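Build the 3D complex.
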Amino acid sequence: MPLAFLSQSILHATVAAVFVEALLRAWRIEDGAWRLRFSLLGLAAPVLWLPALWVFAPIRRSPVFVANWALFAGERWNQVRLGGSGLGDLLLLVACGAGSALFLRDALPPLIDALRGVTRPLAPGPWHPTTAGLRSLVAARSAALAIPPPEVRLVDTQTPVLLCEGARNPVLVVSQAAIERLCPDELDAAITHELAHARHRDPAWGYLLIAVRAALFFNPAAQWIARAMVDDIERRADQTAAAASGHPEALARAMERLFEAGHPPPLDGQASFERVFWRIRQEGLARRCARLRRGPEAGRVRASGALLAAAALGIVGLVFFVI
Amino acid sequence: MSNRTTAVLSWLLVTAGIAAALKVADRVPALVAGTPHGARPYRTVAEAERATGSPLWLPAALPPSVDWPPFRVDAWHGPPLSVAVRAHRRAEQREHLVIVQSIGAPAPPPARLLESLQPLLVSDVTVGAHRAVLTRGLEPGGRLVHDLAWDAGTRRLTVRYAGPVEELLELAAAFERKRP
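Done.
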C-alpha cells in the first residue's frame, strides 16, 4: 500500500507537470503570476488530489478498475522482471533516489551555510552612509510599488548579496560587495526586483515550497515543479520590477554582474556535476535576461480563470485514470 | 481563429496527446513480457488462487504430452473474474493446453486470455452430466486446435487443446471426476 501511494504520487506529479508545461507552451502564457498559478495546479496533484482520490475513490484501486479503466497502471511494469525484481519496483527506487538527490542538492547548501554562520549582519546605525543612501532608494521604490519600505540589513561578506527574506516582515539583505559592483541604474532596478518579491510575499512562498519539497523529497516530478515555480516567482518579480523601474536592460545587466561575481565558473578539478549545475544556472539566467531585453510578449491566448479551471479539470481527469 | 477556439483546441490536443501517450506506455510491459494486456500473470496455480481468493478447477489427470505444472496463470478481473492456466507441450516451448474458467458467472473467455478461433466444425458433446460444445478450428497463427466449453454451476470452463480430440474429451471427464 505505501509503495502504491509513492508510485502514484510520482506518476501523478509527472502527468501534471507535463500537462501544465504543455498547456503553458501551447497557450504561450508569459505572465509570471499566471504561470505560477498553473504550476501550483501541478503541485496540487500529488499534494491534494492524490490523498483525496485515495480516500474518496477507493474504486480506483480495485482489480476491475485497473484491468478495464486505467490509462496507465504502474503495477503492470512489475510483469517485466529484472534480476528477480519487478521493473516497476526498480524504476520506483531509481525515481525516489533522483527525487531525494534533487531535494538535497537544493536544501543542503543553505542548511550548511546557516549552520556555519557564513553571513554576519553589520547592523549599522542610521548614520551609516550606505544604509542611508539605500534607505532613500528603497523608500522611493517602495512607494512606486505601493508597499511600506522594508527594513534594510547590511551583511559583512565579500560575496555580492542582494535578496529579500522574511515571511511576515520582509527584510532587504544587501552586502557592500553587491552595491560596489552595480552602477546606479542597475542598483535601482535590482532593488526594485527585490521589493517586488516583498510585494508578492515571495519569501513566504519560498518557505511553503521548501516545506512541500521536504514532504515530497522522494518525488522527482514534484521537485521539478517546485523548481519551475521558483523560476515563475523570479519571472513575476522581473516583470513587476521592469514595469515599475522602466529599465529592464539595467535589471538584466545587474543580474548578469551579480551572477558573475557570486557564481564563478567551476574549475577543471571540480566534479563534473558541479559544472552541469553551473551551466544550468547560467542558462536559466541567460533566458531571464533575454526575456527582459525582449520586453513583454503577448500570449497566444489571454490567461484567465476559465483556462486555469480547464487545466485543473484536465489534471484531475487524467490522474484519476493513472494508478 | 479566435482566442477561445485556440484555447479549447490546444486543451483538447494536449489532453488527448497525454492520454494516448499513457495508454501506449501502459501496453509496453505486456509486450515485453509476452503476457495479455490488462491481465495479471502469476507463476503458479497456488499464487493465483491466493491472489484471486478462488480455488481453480483443474483436471485429475492429464495427457502425457502436457508439461505440468503450468508455465503461467493469467487472471482477468472482468467482471466476471476469468483465469487462464497455460501449459506447454512436453519438451517444447509451445503452448499446448489452456484451461480458462470464468468464476462467479458463466461467461465466454475474454479475448485477452484466449484468442478467438476460426471455427471449422462445431458439435455438441457431453462432459459428465453437462452438455458441452466442441469446436474444431484454426488459431490466428493457422494452428489446428479444439475448444471444449461447458457450464458447471457458476463457472464456464473452456479448454483449448492442440492434441487429439480423444485426449481432450478424457481430460474434460477428468475435471468432473475430481469434483464431487
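Chain A has one domain: 2-122+168-320.
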